[in-house]
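pls design
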């Protein structure tokens, strides 16, 4: 998706050649008009599957997922990272190692909000090693729901999450895939993607 790639080139900041900061438009200050365009692009790419719910993980997936949910006209459920007093009853849980914070979180989703009747589209901001996605996929499978697809804003193609998830057979649509990035020069290379809308 060229608009997102252009924005990453313009406003992304490379830390340590591994972490891309996009907090001026994606995960701190949020460009909602951009999210809307991203949502429309995922709607086009997943036009052939019935989606009943968007699933994401707190915190930075939530803003994007909310706008995407409007495009699909379905509710959003987000996996919570810590147990709070507001959470009661039965939960689906999974362990997720955080790439950016270098710690392990338990994620949880109430059994009230996901079940076998659901057709899920997972949405998240980044894909690095794929731990967050594996946790969300585990939650979907515990719910016996159908995972129709995964939409990622920025995949770091030089880390192995994308390959692992695609090898598992999941339909993964990343809007921008970074092949390489260099903190010293600021150079970012994107993977070329060719997309045609699926037949309905
Ligand atoms: P993974 O679980 O795939 O290793 O990492 C995905 C999660 O880590 C995302 O939900 C995102 O919050 C965070 N993350 C991974 N890489 C980056 C990055 O380069 N920049 C930012 N801002 N977040 C990242």
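designed seq:
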């Amino acid at each position: 998706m060229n608009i997102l790639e252009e924005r990453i080139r313009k406003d992304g900041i490379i830390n340590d050649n591994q972490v891309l900061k996009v907090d001026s438009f994606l995960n701190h200050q949020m460009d909602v008009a951009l999210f809307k365009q991203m949502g429309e692009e995922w709607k086009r790419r997943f036009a052939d599957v019935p989606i009943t719910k968007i699933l994401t993980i707190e915190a930075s997936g939530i803003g994007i997922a909310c706008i995407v949910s409007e495009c699909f006209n379905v509710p959003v459920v987000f996996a919570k990272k810590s147990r709070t007093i507001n959470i009661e009853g039965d939960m689906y849980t999974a362990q997720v190692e955080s790439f950016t914070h270098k710690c392990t979180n338990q994620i949880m989703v109430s059994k009230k909000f996901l079940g076998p009747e659901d057709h899920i589209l997972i949405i998240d901001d980044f894909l690095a090693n794929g731990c967050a996605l594996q946790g969300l996929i585990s939650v979907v499978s515990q719910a016996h729901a159908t995972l129709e697809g995964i939409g990622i804003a920025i995949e770091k193609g030089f880390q192995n999450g994308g390959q692992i998830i695609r090898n598992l057979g999941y339909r993964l649509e990343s809007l921008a895939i970074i092949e390489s990035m260099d903190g010293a020069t600021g150079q970012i290379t994107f993977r070329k993607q060719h997309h045609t809308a699926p037949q309905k």
